[in-house]
Amino acid sequence: MARVAIVTGGSRGIGQSISLALQAHGMNVAANYAGNDEKARAFTDKTGIKTYKWDVGDHWACLEGVKQVEADLGPVDVLVNNAGITRDATMLKMTFEMWDEVMRVNLGGCFNMAKAVFAGMRERGFGRIVNIGSINGQAGQYGQVNYAAAKSGIHGFTKALAQEGAKFGVTVNAIAPGYIDTEMVSAVPSDVLQKIIARIPVGRLGHAEEIARTVAFLCADDGGFITGSTLSVNGGQHMY
Ligand code: CAA
């Protein structure tokens, strides 16, 4: 039987590449999305990957959304917590709403989704959870106290849950991408972005597929001894 995977934020950006990579590895993928119905429909038409709309920051919506995926595809074996947003501003300009929204979606989303699938994975004796952190959660980033805190929280969340899942065949790992050529990064002012690229030893932005292949690696059936780890994929920008 094909493994069933949920990828949050799975119809665009890095998430889209992750959905495709898991599908290429023979999984039955459900791509969650929050906003753009038209893009999600186009993605399903093109790839055959089913898309499901809910806000990962909404606890109850996650429980309902996962129930629907399980009714359609079967029990969830693999969860990729990829959905994330930025609300960049320096501390002086950052509002509480900008802080709260990023914490709610980026970090709260990991809890909400893991809560929805963890008990079942544990009962069945198999699970793969991969949380997408960030280089900016490891190193910090000017203008991102909200995002850096949430992503840093993801790394702690990963190590704690990995300890709870280990005995039950459930691995929990994180990936810390550097700057990847997605819409999120292209929103960074171009003069700032040029300075960032100049600090990447590989000399370029990463590609979404370069993150996706590391997710597939961690989600493989024979990956049972890798848990609680953070895999940095950042072109050498931050060596941790
Ligand atoms: N270090 C030190 N000083 C910096 C700085 C830095 N990295 N970036 C900006 N500054 C300074 C500027 O030089 C400027 O100083 P002066 O006033 O003395 O000239 C001051 O801070 C204000 O800078 P801005 O004019 O840029 O201020 P702003 O309010 O218009 O914008 C900002 C601030 C929103 C933080 C903007 O600089 C920005 O968007 N920076 C990029 C943040 C970033 O990297 N986000 C990553 C998004 S992608 C992502 O998050 C994915 C991932 O996981 C990697």
Q: Helical element count?
A: 9
Q: How does the helix and strand content classify structurally? A: alpha/beta
**The first-level CATH class name:** Alpha Beta
Instruction: Count all strands and give the number.
Output: 7
Bound molecules: acetoacetyl-coenzyme A
Query: Largest sheet at a glance?
Result: 7 strands, parallel
Instruction: Give the overall shape.
Output: globular
State the order of secondary-structure elements, H for helix, E for strand: EHEHEHEHEHHEHHHE
Q: What separation lies between the terminal Cα atoms?
A: 38 Å
Beta-strand percentage range: 15-25%
Under the CATH scheme, the architecture is 3-Layer(aba) Sandwich
Strand order of the largest sheet: 3-2-1-4-5-6-7
CATH superfamily, please?
Answer: NAD(P)-binding Rossmann-like Domain
How many domains? 1
Describe it for me?
By secondary structure, the chain is of the alpha/beta class. It has a single domain (4-233), classed as 3-Layer(aba) Sandwich (Rossmann fold). It has nine helices and seven strands. The chain has helices at 13-24, 37-47, 59-73, 96-124, 135-139, 145-165, 183-186, 190-198, 208-219, and strands at 4-7, 28-33, 50-53, 78-81, 127-132, 170-177, 230-233. Helix 2 (37-47) links the parallel strand 2 and strand 3. Helix 3 runs parallel beside helix 4 and helix 4 (96-124) packs parallel to helix 6 (145-165). The longest helix has 29 residues, at 96-124. It is globular and about 50 Å long. The termini are far apart. The mean pLDDT is 97.
